[in-house]
Specification:
This protein is mainly α and 292 residues long. Helix content is 65%, strand content 7%.
Length: 292
């Protein structure tokens, strides 16, 4: 039988010793075997971590336990409270507590440790960390205006937590990093050149960010808008107040020069898209609205 060993030895002098072609072949087989095992493991982890939202029916990946994500959220919230001044406005604090507790009462999240804190900051924003730790920046209150407007904001933020969006983002990051490593291993096993490997590494991260992660972030924001709309209706706030809030927020963005980022580089839908999606979802939300 013809042997390729002499040709290999001539092309790679010093790499192949006498009778060592079989060793090289074994190494490639072992690398392919390792790749196959890694692919099987990755597929098993992905399938076992697939979860479906009871609110929207959207399936997503969760590789972390809810206990793990809650622990991360609790620690992060403690750090934020140490670094950011807490508002001393008694009336504003009372409103945040009042609205927050009503929304939390209708939000389904096992193991939630609800806490609502009003931070003194001009930034018009709010957040909810895994586990139910909610922060509201005082800068958003002139835009929310009243309890119902604040309910639109808190419904949205609490929906991020109940839908485990933080867990999903971290899980996707883990999976995509693993995928990148597997592709790199596959390319190496197939004999890709260093230049090709470097090109892949330089393109993979920005390609994933623009091609999958930013669109996914916009999907999560839209989901939080719709689930939050349901929460505020179930808590007894007129869901039409959500539409009014986002219209005021769009006006604020326009006056402050926000919203100029190219769409495919945005983490959130445009204001016009959000308003249109909320308008479309209002009839279903109103069906769940029970004034108090």
């Amino acid at each position: 039988m013809y042997s390729f060993a002499p040709r290999v030895k001539a092309i790679f002098p010093g790499l192949i010793g006498s009778g060592d072609y079989a060793s090289m072949r074994r190494m490639r087989i072992e690398r392919c075997d390792s790749l196959s095992k890694a692919l099987v493991l990755a597929a098993a982890l992905t399938l076992s971590g697939c979860v479906t939202s009871s609110e929207t029916g959207r399936s997503h990946l969760e590789l972390m336990s809810h206990g793990e994500e809650t622990s991360l959220g609790l620690q992060s919230f403690q750090d934020i409270k140490k670094q950011t001044p807490i508002s001393k406005d008694a009336a504003a604090n009372a409103m945040v507590q009042r609205v927050g507790q009503r929304i939390a009462a209708v939000a389904q999240m096992d193991g939630a440790q609800w806490e609502f804190v009003l931070f003194e900051s001009k930034e018009p924003n709010a957040f909810c960390l895994p586990g139910g730790k909610v922060g509201v920046y005082s800068g958003i209150l002139p835009i929310t205006k009243d309890d119902a407007g604040l309910a639109a904001v808190l419904g949205h933020e609490i929906a991020h937590a109940t839908q485990h969006h933080g867990n999903e983002r971290m899980s996707r990051s883990m999976a995509l990093n693993g995928l990148g490593s597997l592709v790199g291993l596959s390319m190496s096993a197939s004999g890709a050149s260093p230049r090709t490997m470097a090109l892949f590494q330089n393109l993979y991260t920005p390609g994933v960010q623009i091609g999958t992660e930013l669109p996914h972030s916009r999907t999560q924001e839209s989901e939080a808008d719709l689930v939050g709309l349901r929460y505020m209706a179930r808590a007894g706030y007129n869901p039409e107040a959500s539409l009014a809030f986002w219209q005021r927020f769009a006006e604020f963005n326009s006056k402050s020069g926000g919203g100029g980022t190219l769409f495919f580089l945005r983490t959130h839908p445009t204001d016009a898209q959000r308003i249109a999606q909320i308008q479309a979802a209002l009839p279903a939300a109103k069906a769940e609205y029970r004034p108090r």
